[in-house]
């Protein structure tokens, strides 16, 4: 990709923002060195990585790279024979532990996140290095006694020698005869030797070696001769300890050097995973979406390069999203050259930069700040000549500089490239500039090169209208406020507003009329016609706005209707369920009466054939009463199809989650650490569920605090988990009984009881209670991810 174009389109600035979302130096380096790919399969794979990372961060928002560090410099030092300090070795250990943790996270995610799994599967596992560092170095960076048998023996002797040395010195300074000679009764060190402070006038009072004196000369720091041997022994042991520690660090460094390839590869793989997660976080910050990357397929008539640009509500990623005006850029199947006209500071250059930069981001695997469904071709190269007069970072380009750059572009570009030219033909005589601009455009169109151009030359409006493959576009300008609106309109050239602006600013009418008379009548009629087209377009836009408001009102009414229908459906199910329960009771009573009648007839030795017909009818009634009341789908409300990654509400569970797997009739929903499989009819988009909760119908379904709830309402879900940790057994069993009743009445299929492991007494009490509970069908320990023996999963009877 052309490096100059990357600078012109401010691609490195985007990479700097991406790097800010990375967690350590290696991934930041990867972000800053990221370059657009020209391979379609690779670009699509990179987009898929970002998509998977976004979905993964929804289900695992707490995921990080842990304690990974950029250990490349330390590994390089070890390769060249250097001895690594304990801090660097701990960084290497932390990085390897983080790699092991990441692999465990992705190990079972191959089907759901195949691209992220592919990256994580490259994580090597250097054998024994983590254990070797753990045995030798503590978490505080201290070399442990257990690092080697020799170090342990040296430190043991060192402690003994130290205690003996201090004990001798303590006896000396504790001698009453020495008290007058001492400046202070303390033991200190000078040059690694233990000494005592002696008054200078008592210099010959004790046989000793002078090591230092105070600045005033009043105190001498002396080493008594009786402790010289002990001091020597202590000093020798210190040096032996230092040498052994260095030997241990040297051995560990040697192991690091031997496994340098695996360690560097580990850092690279972690950086690649972190970069994918950074892309997902940056996409979330930009409210970006995945673009559809398309190949360039030349048309059969050979008049079109086969490129596609369909960007809906595209925004420049470096501009404040609260202020930027999104633009729609679409080149149809007959068009591949866009010629934009409009006022200065109207947004023409920003539009060009937006399209070029989004193309670069899409080919780099980044999601783009545009509406879902945007499409763009993968270009083999992008060339730009933009002299941005609004940028204080870039000096004004001369005409010769522009021409030199354009010549380079014309020599290098082909039909697989995108060419972006700002202010084409500017900086010279207008007539010659317009002619040169027409010539350049003709050359690019004849070679079928996708081109985006801005210009002030009115001659190019007619050129674009008359040339196949080219189309006009304009940046709108509000005559009333004398300000640009920054909206891009494709299909219409920009109007000449000079006279209108002068008139609005108070230019005398005679001058305005005189100037108008100087204009070519054909140009005047064309401008009047263009004004009428713009006026009709504004009317159409207003009508569309009214239609949008009406559609929004219809959606609101539809949501309210959905709430009302849900309330009716809940009431219907409740009434039918109550009737079914009553029928079951009556059938049970009738069955008991039949059994009594059968026994009475048997005692009276009477035939039983008369009861057979009644028993058959009774069996039919039992079958009917046993059928559960099914929830009917709400056919009056047409919902958008559910997709992977959608946030949904689960009807009846009072919970929300993210769709992780989607089938023809059911779906798997991630709710916290749990995965629940349920029918599609029980799912509803979370946004629609929230709206339905706020509708009058839903508010009417929620009783006031001082009013009893209607008997036909299904009890609210108490949630899928009950945490009993920290409670006494009697308190826990009372809470468990209330919770199980509430969960059974709410229709939950299963629940999780969290009791912890501890001594196991609470777990035994809970499971003993579950053995005898009327609603419990079965129970079992949770999976490893759910907490193992610290959790009991309870399944209810139908």
Protein architecture, described:
- A six-stranded mixed beta sheet has the order 10-11-12-8-13-14, with helices on both faces. Strands 18-17-16-15-19 form a five-stranded antiparallel beta sheet. It has a four-stranded antiparallel beta sheet with strand order 1-2-4-3.
- The protein is flat, with a radius of gyration of 41 Å.
- It is α/β, with parallel strands linked by helices.
- The chain is built from 23 helices and 23 strands.
- The overall pLDDT average reads 81
Broad shape:
flat
Helix content: 40-55%
- Strand sequence of the main sheet, in spatial order? 10-11-12-8-13-14
What radius of gyration results from the CA coordinates? 41 Å
Total number of helices: 23
Structural class: alpha/beta
- Report the end-to-end length measured between terminal Cα atoms: 64 Å
Q: Are there runs of 5+ residues with pLDDT below 50, and where? A: 388-397, 695-713
Q: Which range does the strand content fall in?
A: 15-25%
Major sheet, described briefly? 6 strands, mixed
Number of DSSP strands?
Answer: 23
């Amino acid at each position: 990709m052309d490096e100059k174009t990357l600078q012109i389109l401010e691609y490195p600035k985007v990479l700097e923002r991406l790097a800010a979302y990375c967690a350590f130096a290696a991934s930041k380096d990867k972000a800053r060195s990221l370059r657009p790919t020209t391979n379609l399969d690779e670009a699509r794979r990179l987009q898929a990585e970002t998509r998977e990372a976004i979905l993964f961060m929804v289900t695992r928002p707490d995921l990080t790279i842990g304690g990974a560090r950029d250990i490349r410099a330390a590994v390089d030092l070890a390769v060249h024979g250097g001895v690594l300090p304990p801090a660097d070795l701990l960084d290497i250990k932390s990085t390897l532990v983080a790699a092991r943790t990441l692999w465990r996270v992705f190990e079972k995610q191959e089907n759901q996140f195949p691209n992220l799994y592919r990256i994580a599967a490259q994580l090597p596992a250097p054998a024994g290095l983590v254990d070797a560092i753990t045995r030798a170095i503590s978490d505080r960076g201290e070399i442990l006694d257990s690092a080697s048998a020799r170090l342990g023996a040296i430190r043991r002797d060192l402690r003994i020698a130290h205690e003996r040395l201090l004990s001798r010195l303590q006896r000396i300074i504790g001698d009453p005869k020495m008290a007058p000679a001492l400046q202070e009764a303390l033991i200190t060190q000078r040059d690694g030797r233990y000494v005592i402070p002696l008054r200078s006038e008592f210099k010959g009072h004790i046989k000793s070696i002078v090591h230092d004196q105070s600045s005033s000369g009043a105190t001498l720091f002396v080493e008594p001769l009786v402790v010289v041997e002990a001091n020597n022994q202590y000093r020798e042991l210190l040096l032996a300890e230092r040498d052994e520690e260095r030997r241990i660090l040297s051995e560990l460094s040697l192991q690091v050097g031997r496994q340098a390839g695996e360690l560097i590869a580990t850092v690279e793989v972690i950086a690649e995973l972190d970069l994918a997660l950074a892309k997902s976080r940056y996409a979330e910050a930009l409210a970006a979406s995945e673009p559809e990357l398309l190949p360039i397929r030349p048309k059969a008539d050979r008049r079109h390069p086969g490129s596609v640009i369909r960007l809906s509500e595209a925004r420049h990623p470096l501009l404040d999203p609260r202020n930027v005006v999104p633009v729609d850029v679409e080149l149809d199947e007959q068009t591949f050259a866009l010629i934009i006209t409009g006022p200065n500071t109207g947004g023409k250059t920003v539009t060009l930069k937006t399209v070029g930069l989004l193309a670069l981001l899409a080919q780099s695997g980044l999601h783009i700040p545009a509406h879902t469904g945007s499409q763009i071709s993968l270009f083999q190269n992008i060339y730009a000549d933009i002299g941005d007069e609004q940028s204080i970072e870039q000096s004004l380009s001369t005409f010769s500089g522009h021409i030199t750059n354009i010549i380079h572009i014309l020599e290098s570009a082909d039909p697989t490239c995108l060419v972006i030219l700002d202010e084409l033909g500017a900086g010279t005589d207008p007539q010659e500039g317009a002619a040169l601009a027409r010539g350049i455009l003709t050359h690019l169109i004849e070679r079928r090169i996708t081109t985006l151009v801005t210009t002030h030359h009115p001659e190019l409006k007619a050129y674009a209208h008359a040339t196949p493959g080219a189309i006009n576009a304009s940046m709108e300008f509000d005559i009333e406020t004398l300000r640009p609106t920054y909206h891009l309109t494709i299909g219409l050239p920009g109007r000449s507003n000079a006279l209108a602006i002068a008139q609005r600013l108070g230019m005398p009418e005679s001058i305005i009329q005189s100037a108008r008379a100087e204009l070519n009548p054909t140009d005047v009629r064309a401008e009047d016609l263009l004004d009428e087209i713009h006026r009709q377009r504004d009317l159409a836009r207003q009508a569309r706005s009214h239609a949008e408001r009406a559609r929004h009102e219809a959606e609101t009414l539809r949501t309210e209707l959905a709430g009302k229908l849900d309330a009716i459906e809940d009431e219907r199910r409740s009434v039918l369920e109550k009737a079914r329960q009553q029928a079951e009771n009556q059938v049970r009573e009738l069955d008991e009466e039949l059994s009594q009648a059968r026994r009475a007839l048997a005692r009276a030795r009477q035939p039983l054939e008369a009861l057979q017909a009644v028993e058959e009818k009774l069996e039919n009634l039992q079958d009917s009463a046993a059928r559960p009341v099914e929830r009917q789908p709400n056919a009056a409300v047409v919902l958008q199809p559910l997709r992977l990654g959608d946030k949904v509400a689960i009807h009846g569970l009072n919970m929300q989650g993210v769709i992780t797997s989607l089938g023809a009739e059911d779906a798997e929903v991630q709710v916290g650490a749990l995965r629940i499989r349920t029918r599609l009819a029980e799912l509803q988009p979370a946004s629609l569920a929230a709206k339905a909760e706020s509708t009058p119908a839903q508010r009417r379904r929620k009783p006031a605090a001082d009013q009893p709830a209607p008997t036909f309402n299904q009890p609210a879900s108490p949630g899928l988990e009950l945490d009993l940790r920290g409670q006494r057994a009697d308190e826990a069993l009372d809470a468990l009984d209330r919770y199980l009743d509430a969960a059974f009445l709410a229709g939950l299929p299963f629940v999780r009881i969290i009791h912890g492991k501890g001594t196991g007494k609470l777990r035994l009490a809970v499971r003993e209670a579950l053995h005898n509970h009327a609603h419990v069908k079965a129970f079992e320990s949770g999976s490893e991810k759910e907490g193992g023996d610290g959790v009991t999963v309870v399944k209810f009877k139908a």
